[in-house]
Amino acid sequence: MVTEWTSESSRPEMAGTKTEGSVMRSIEPNRTQAGRPGGLSPGGRGLGVAAVDPIPIFCEGLSSLVHRTPGLTWLGHAASHHAALQLCEQLKPDVIVLDSALDPNCHLSRLLSGGDPALVIITMIRDTNRTQQYLAAAIAAGVHAIVPRATDGRHLAEAIRRAHSDRRYIDPTLAALTARPKRQPVLPKPGDAPKPAAARGLMPLSRREYQVLQLVAEGLENSGIAKILFLSVETVRTHVKSILRKLSARDRTHAVTIAFRSGILVANPDDAHTPVEPAAAASIAPSPR
């Protein structure tokens, strides 16, 4: 499996790091923190926009929308959780447009908002996630705007602007779902032991542990993970030990199994496109302007 994020300044000739089937290109940030707070950066650049979505053609369409919208600048896209965290660490976008299918439990949203409080997160919600519970969980996790995935370009551009200026935007078609859901409290049975965080669907892992677990699930050994995340092998080993302890797992395979069953890790959506090899990825990435 190949995992990578693609940026506006990607080039076929750029040097990459390839380890046991995982590919990732590292580039230096090429922007100031435009729009923090609102408006253009001193150099005249607009708000930096990036996407987290598994479908390249969708990201290509979003990049075209951003390119033709005054005041917005396209930075790139990622197709997985740990690639999204890497993209945000290195490019520091102002706005992230996130596919709800990649974040059904809002773990990624919480990690992104916790890592950069100034980041504006816009979730494009699919029909399968269109519930009161999901909207409430997304907002609690730090999502600033929620729009239908089927929205048109004009409304999405408006949502990006409104979310950045107002720090909150819910598409009018979703207004009925913003009412607080009525739920009966589930009381534990007498004698029941409290469930661990993983079993309750919570996120017990740190941002870095989450990235390490993603790569463990892809079959990488510690040395490969270290190269991808620019860490020492000993540091990765320490993270793996912490993951096993927090998930009460016997070994790496057991940890991955627990993570998928509890919703900490999420399988790619059914219509997700398997990321392509580096040269092909560069060919579909938006070209510099």
Fold and architecture overview:
The modification 4-aspartylphosphate is found at residue 99. Residues 198-263 form the HTH luxR-type domain. One of its GO terms (biological process) is phosphorelay signal transduction system. Helix 2 (81-91) packs parallel to helix 3 (107-115), helix 2 packs across helix 6 and helix 6 (207-217) crosses helix 9. It is built from 10 helices and 9 strands. It has helices spanning 56-67, 81-91, 107-115, 132-140, 153-166, 207-217, 222-229, 233-247, 252-262, 278-284, and strands spanning 5-7, 17-19, 22-24, 47-52, 72-78, 95-99, 120-125, 145-148, 169-170. By secondary structure, it is an alpha/beta fold. The protein is globular and about 50 Å long. Mean pLDDT is 77; it is low at 11-43, 192-201 and 270-289. The chain starts with a strand and ends in a 5-residue tail after the last helix. Among the domains are: 47-178, Response regulator (Rossmann fold, 3-Layer(aba) Sandwich); 207-262, Arc Repressor Mutant, subunit A (Orthogonal Bundle), CATH 1.10.10.10.
Roughly how many Å apart are the termini? 31 Å
**Which word captures the global form?**
globular
How many strand units?
A: 9
> Structural class, judged by helices and strands?
alpha/beta
Mean pLDDT: 77
Number of helices: 10
Rg, Cα atoms, Å = 19 Å
Features:
289 residues; alpha/beta; Rossmann fold; Arc Repressor Mutant, subunit A; two-stranded antiparallel sheet; 37% helix; CheY-like_superfamily; phosphoprotein; DNA binding; Two-component system response regulator
